[in-house]
Amino acid sequence: MTSMNAKGRDTSGKALADAPQTFSGNRALILDEPLIFEIGDRSRTGVDLSDEALSEDRLGGLARNRSIDIPGLSEPETMRHFTRLSRMNYAIDMGLFPLGSCTMKHNPRLNEKVARMKGFADIHPMQPQSTVQGALELMDELAYWLKTLTGMPEVALSPKAGAHGELCGMLAIRAAHEANGNPRSTVLVPESAHGTNPATAAFCGYGVDSILATKEGKVDVAALKAKLGPEIAGIMITNPNTCGLFEKDLIEICDAVHEAGGYVYCDGANFNAIVGKVRPGDLGIDAMHINLHKTFSTPHGGGGPGSGPVVFSKRLAPYAPLPFVRKNDEGQFELVEEENLAAGDHPDSFGRMVAFHGQMGMYVRALAYMMSHGADGLRQVAEDAVLNANYVLRRLEGEMSAPFADGGPCMHEALFSDEWMKGSGLSTLDVAKAMIDEGYHPMTMYFPLVVDGAMLIEPTETESKADLDRFIDVMIALARAVKAGETDRFKGAPYYAPLRRLDETQAARKPKLTWSEPDVAEAAE
Amino acid sequence: MTSMNAKGRDTSGKALADAPQTFSGNRALILDEPLIFEIGDRSRTGVDLSDEALSEDRLGGLARNRSIDIPGLSEPETMRHFTRLSRMNYAIDMGLFPLGSCTMKHNPRLNEKVARMKGFADIHPMQPQSTVQGALELMDELAYWLKTLTGMPEVALSPKAGAHGELCGMLAIRAAHEANGNPRSTVLVPESAHGTNPATAAFCGYGVDSILATKEGKVDVAALKAKLGPEIAGIMITNPNTCGLFEKDLIEICDAVHEAGGYVYCDGANFNAIVGKVRPGDLGIDAMHINLHKTFSTPHGGGGPGSGPVVFSKRLAPYAPLPFVRKNDEGQFELVEEENLAAGDHPDSFGRMVAFHGQMGMYVRALAYMMSHGADGLRQVAEDAVLNANYVLRRLEGEMSAPFADGGPCMHEALFSDEWMKGSGLSTLDVAKAMIDEGYHPMTMYFPLVVDGAMLIEPTETESKADLDRFIDVMIALARAVKAGETDRFKGAPYYAPLRRLDETQAARKPKLTWSEPDVAEAAE
Amino acid sequence: MRYLPLTDTDRQAMLGTIGVQDIDDLFQDVPQAARLDGPIEGLPMHASEMAVERHFSALARKNKAAAHSPFFLGCGAYKHHVPASVDYIIQRGEFLTSYTPYQPEIAQGTLQYLFEFQTQVARLTGMDVANASMYDGSTACVEAIFMARRVTRRKKAVISGGVHPHYVSVARTLTHFTDDEIDAHPATVQQGAPGDDIEALVAAVDEHTSCVVVQNPNLFGHIADLSGLAARCHEKGALLIAVVTEVVSLGAIKSPGEMGADIVVGEGQSIGGGLNFGGPYLGLFACNQKHVRQMPGRLCGETVDATGKRGFVLTLSTREQHIRREKATSNICTNSGLMALAFTVHMTLLGEEGMRRLAAINHNRAVEVAERLAAISGITVLNDSFFNEFTIRLETDTRALVRKMARTKLLGGVSLGRLYPDDGDIERCITLAVTETVTDDDIDALISAYKGAVA
Amino acid sequence: MRYLPLTDTDRQAMLGTIGVQDIDDLFQDVPQAARLDGPIEGLPMHASEMAVERHFSALARKNKAAAHSPFFLGCGAYKHHVPASVDYIIQRGEFLTSYTPYQPEIAQGTLQYLFEFQTQVARLTGMDVANASMYDGSTACVEAIFMARRVTRRKKAVISGGVHPHYVSVARTLTHFTDDEIDAHPATVQQGAPGDDIEALVAAVDEHTSCVVVQNPNLFGHIADLSGLAARCHEKGALLIAVVTEVVSLGAIKSPGEMGADIVVGEGQSIGGGLNFGGPYLGLFACNQKHVRQMPGRLCGETVDATGKRGFVLTLSTREQHIRREKATSNICTNSGLMALAFTVHMTLLGEEGMRRLAAINHNRAVEVAERLAAISGITVLNDSFFNEFTIRLETDTRALVRKMARTKLLGGVSLGRLYPDDGDIERCITLAVTETVTDDDIDALISAYKGAVA
Ligand SMILES: Cc1ncc(COP(=O)(O)O)c(C=O)c1O
Ligand SMILES: Cc1ncc(COP(=O)(O)O)c(C=O)c1O
């Protein structure tokens, strides 16, 4: 196994068995860090502001007298606190982050740099439009790229994330149905769909009817067709789907849904697999959101922000939300907003779904990413993402069970089930935690729901072959350790992380969601 | 000891005794990282540049045909490589870095931000002076601050670090002596001086005569006076000195040296202890360098860059180097450079000691730091630095031996010797390595040379009392562990760092300073 | 291409391992007819970093940055000074390039700051708990309306005319297709208390009302005491939802919690965030303990690890889409994590002391500007009370005026005609915000511009 | 004050623990008469981050940034595009805020990149080893002269007239007071090979010569074959010191090592560094294995840890001031660590392939500009050979011309009168550098400005 250590040295030397417990609780560069509430205090501040008396005459008698009770820290303490916290995280910048369906790819720092240009970062959404022509032009450019890459005639930029994009698309579908006199009642959602899909449908007032997957991991076209009818508003289909497979019958599905008077919403979270290889518009879909924070690399930031523009077919375009950018006859860019609506411009729009105009900061980053790759590079992105995933699939399928691998290649992610570890007493979770010790972020676990103990691995195109090989070698070693019954390695994992395995059940049983001063009794323990 | 753990939790739980050896060699967030030469290759690049053929006609027949043999990496691989490397470092941003004589204080990010403004970072040193008036004004402002804080009439900004500043000061002294007809031969240097002092004197062609310290850790005035004479060019004295003590006889020393026709060079590395409390010029010195990368917080950057401006007394001012900034009669700022010298302007200058005009990037940062503190804040800096050091001294003197503590308070740093651990079989080095496990950067070891096994602790003013208390508690616990004979804790340390103790002897015996392809035989081992 | 590590040699070798000839063999499921046989048309080829940077510099130069002119815009987005350390922290790769903390053992950095964030937001708003963020204030607001429906099992939301009109639009849009009912009161700009319709709201609450939504300070800057309205809501079994678009105000005025609100939603952009032309921003969402299980969005909670050490995890996820699917409290997944971090860092630097000082400076400066404007004849300041934002009325076309000022490099306020296109009365108003970033020179420039305008 | 964590309560408590009344009791050793009894006079009080930032913005705006005008300056400092990732990496606190790696177990990050840096520099220059950096090219150059003295035990350094005049000045200054002898040849700007004095240098080498210092490409951009000179040096027992001020040239032209140099010093600013008005820059220092123990500066070397794992440490420190004191090879301590990191990161991104491309683009563009200038009557291009920089002669006052161009926002070259104030011949010359950052528009602007100047 020493071959896996890229330094080419034997690391088996002394383990940490003889290491003493430290007095501080720290372990060299792994540093404990209290909460700000435990180290700061209300009178301290890390910002130099003059200490003026608040003039209360014009506060309507509503001055805040009670304490805010938020502690402050000096700047050096603040830097340390958050630096230490940051060091407890894993991140793409540190290594492989193969969360399936999340497209955790390299985040170029060029994008961070351009997004911070004052001309983008320091402009107000309500400035006169003559003073933000560059920003509007940028939005127009981004819109052009998205429409061109998807082959769709219209795009709404404002949705704030993927789920918000879904809402946007489904609202347009509902608006279109209403314009036809009947909103219809039900949306079809395949079983393998992401949770946001059914949740979105419900948010739009639709009931959800689930469609089972075939044993090849795709939508069962016959079952789908059987469900179509006058109350079916449409389908929310993910393509490539969350088993990492391209829905090869998508054209047929679209035709069938259209014939039944419905619309096809495509969840485009996995667009990375096909960008530049095929235009979803050519397959017949009506709406699709694009997670700029996946395919176009705006950073996930530990949970957000994202951006989820939605492209529309010609049939849905009239219902797209406000605001959007257009170029007027004098060659000026302008925002189409409430006032235009009031003036009867764009009358069928379903309206506004967010304050202001969307995630400008993400637009800048995504466009910088697109321009950097260009048409040739984006195509290469899809090819390399798919190549990497298939490489993982093929090298691991002999060691772990890949339920759909016999059906042919996967797209951008490789799906495994826990079949191969049956009887070992170990679970997908245990393997995930052991991966942490090995220096990897685990893959997506227990999703999609269509296979047992799912392990969904999406390497993305920004992994090198050498890094993948190392990862695969480790996975093989772990798989063999499972089979060899090395239970402790898994059950006790992670051993080396800042914390050992966390108790999620206790957290949910008696939720403690904010900090409070410990009881004197408790503190004395 | 659980009280030391700021999270207020018992961390004694399970040690790592049962942790398995990982297959990858990684330990969760502690990631192994090979050299770029082991992962990159010559044909790969992380920069998109067009692949033009080099037109060789005008290369004088000297085109490079042999390989450069430097590997490239794509951008994602590069980011990961250096991010992983960074995580193997300790830094001020992570915790206490009490290296005595190094003044490792908080580095504000404001300074990084302003230094990156294009108007400073993107101007060329040879641009017409009319196009860099803001830069010259900034240099003039910095000069004003430095002169005011030191009470000295002249300053040379160009020296690139402390040692370079020493050179600057000593060259001026030598030039002054030469102007008087005799360069003299010897410079006096106290035993406790930093190595750069004697090295500098030698660089200027002087012999070095060492002055012993008194048992109070200060310069022996009588011994000094005895050495003065017509061949003594001057003295290089550090104040506060490297035992962390203020040379209280400095005025007397200056008078004596001056009387003997010599000059007093003051090593100002420890200016942080007295800034705003006393002006060195009022004590009679002739020249002093100021490490902007210590007192004025420009970051150390893992070894540099620094900046070492030198202030001069009236007597030495004429000999100060080129270039410098002055304001001309039209209110324009101008650089006094070679051409002025050629024109007979500033004729006694000893000349240029570096290309261009010095460390602009550091000037910006240092000035931003000074302005942020202001006259009141800088005084507070000195007071808090001295307060913190005395607090450490007093809380630890009972557990460790502090050779000069009986003489009164220290200044910015507390000096301990290894007296207290005699007989334990352990050394200063062992304690330092155990501190690493506890999550602290060790103090300066084995310097100054005037005490055995020196441990020189400089907390600086940017440590909070709570952090100091935690540190002191750990030091006490370690001291008691030494006395209790817990040898393994020290001899084996560090246990938790990315690497265990490194073999410095082997490195020096057969130096391997660059990477080379391993022999096939060696690789096969 | 600089972001792609695979070399052609790698690709060849990998295809070999996979056992196919050509990359297109892996795309076999894509209908042949739809496959593109080369780079998509109509787009340029890849570009160097330098070329891309130049392109964006050119675009950025076409915008007038707030820092480059006297700047007085507010209405839901505020220019505040954000310390440089905040931006440094949020750019650290460990925060910037990590995902939602699904693996808590290697995400304690994110989880701990979320716990700190939740606590800060709860205390600031005067509530028991807060979630780990929503997209922005407007979407948080409509989520609160949905939550009130779940809690009360009623469907009518009453919305004050003082609520930001974009927020009202969003609520209308998202409730339009469900069977929710929205009773949105019109905005009124009466002298003294512009946008204040508390009385009308009190009157509108009945036993069908799920909630009343009121903004404080409201769009026009007016501050109201919400206690009476809260009492009325509670009497009728409805929830009071308070919207705060300028969180700095909470350093000076009573928290909605203290006045009896049941849910507080807000736009957190003022702390730690920039203007960013409207996004990304930071949705705040706080409520009381008893409603926790009806909250939308992620929650971080305290727990212990296998050795008993304290740690944090995402919790109560049975409310969320990935577990509950169509029965989830919201469809939100990605939120505003990094903006929450910026908020937490900035708020940690401020502390209570800094918040109070910041608020005092904002308010005092705003009072100064209001008084100087009020002294100009032809200008009426409508507000008796306000925090850092107030509304004036002029007898001229305010949209033209604002555009004209912009041409002379002064961003002198938001002309309300843009937000209320139909309302002749409001169209003559301008709302101005005055923060700590405004200098004396800026104020002088503003005053002389307005003097010129009404002269 | 935001950078100071102690509160007054802390201070009081600490004084108590120490056992003194007042902070001034800790300053008792400071002569009473010299103690200041309050904030020093003549300086402002502390200022907020916002105020400081404004002050610096105002100063920065008074400078004309290279990015904002067509830019053709070189002469020892070059404008190149540095990838954004480089600046991100060097700003990571773990690199930025650490000290010299004296505790290797928690400084492997710094040590490993230094080892990589040393290897990159050695390979680029064609030498066996390189050190961990010097302040800049000029100080590296004089250190090389001192090293040659130690190696040869001779004192006469012969310096070519093609060496940057600042470097020559520095060498003169630092050798003036020691008993070194400097034989500095005058700069000559002959047609075809400006600054080339190889023949004269060959003639000057004798048995007293410790070294010959020659720059390649030289200050005027001319490239020379150093092999003959190297052979002559070696024949006489002297060392050949090659100076490289534009390291990008090493992507296109033979390395000094290949041509026989014994020491190569250089300015590394072009890779990873910005212009920064002259500093901080990056001194490169490389030599052959046999002279390693005479090198100045820090060296990082490979070793193993207690378990046999590879690691890196600072080594051969018996050469250095902190061990050897007055017998050290140099007095240098703080060097240019972070700039070395920037260099290493940028060089890692480039790799050989990127270096070659970058060099080709630079050279090809420079050839284009040289040819277009040569076509203007009244302008003579002096160089037959050059990399990305060359010298032209005009019949006008070049200093006035350059200033005039600057007023029209064109930075059109360095007028050599500033560097050679006394030399009537050279004063009529301008040296221009053309890098990858120059656009076609920039070139057009340059050409038309020069056409106008000589018309
Ligand atoms: C398949 C799929 N659909 C939708 C989403 C929701 O996107 P977002 O998190 O941006 O709201 C995700 C992301 O988690 C996803 O993987
Ligand atoms: C007392 C003393 N003098 C001089 C120096 C040299 O300064 P620099 O490293 O900036 O050259 C140092 C720093 O290490 C020092 O501590």
Please explain how this structure is put together:
The complex is a heterotetramer, with two copies of chain A (525 residues) and two copies of chain C (455 residues). Chain A is an alpha/beta fold and 525 residues long. Chain A has helices at residues 36-39, 75-86, 109-115, 118-121, 133-150, 162-179, 196-203, 221-227, 250-259, 338-342, 360-396, 428-437, 465-483, 487-491, 504-509, 520-524; strands spanning 154-156, 186-190, 207-211, 232-238, 263-267, 287-289, 310-312, 324-327, 333-336, 414-416, 444-445, 455-457. Chain A has a seven-stranded mixed β-sheet with strand order 1-7-6-5-4-2-3, with helices on both faces. Chain A has a three-stranded antiparallel β-sheet with strand order 10-12-11. Residues 1-14 of chain A have low confidence and may be disordered. Chain C has 455 residues and is of the alpha/beta class. In chain C, the strands form three sheets. Chain C has a seven-stranded mixed β-sheet with strand order 1-7-6-5-4-2-3, sandwiched between helices. Chain C has a four-stranded antiparallel β-sheet with strand order 10-11-13-12, covered by helices on one side. Chain C has a two-stranded antiparallel sheet with strand order 8-9. The longest helix of chain C is centred in the last third of the chain and has 38 residues, at 337-374. The radius of gyration of chain C is 25 Å and the shape is globular. Chain C starts with 7 loop residues before the first helix and ends with a helix. Chains in contact: A-B, A-C, A-D, B-C, B-D, C-D. At the A-C interface, helix 2, helix 3, helix 4, helix 5 and helix 6 of A face helix 1, helix 2, helix 3, helix 4 and helix 5 of C. The site of one pyridoxal-5'-phosphate (PLP) has 13 residues of chain B, from helix 6.
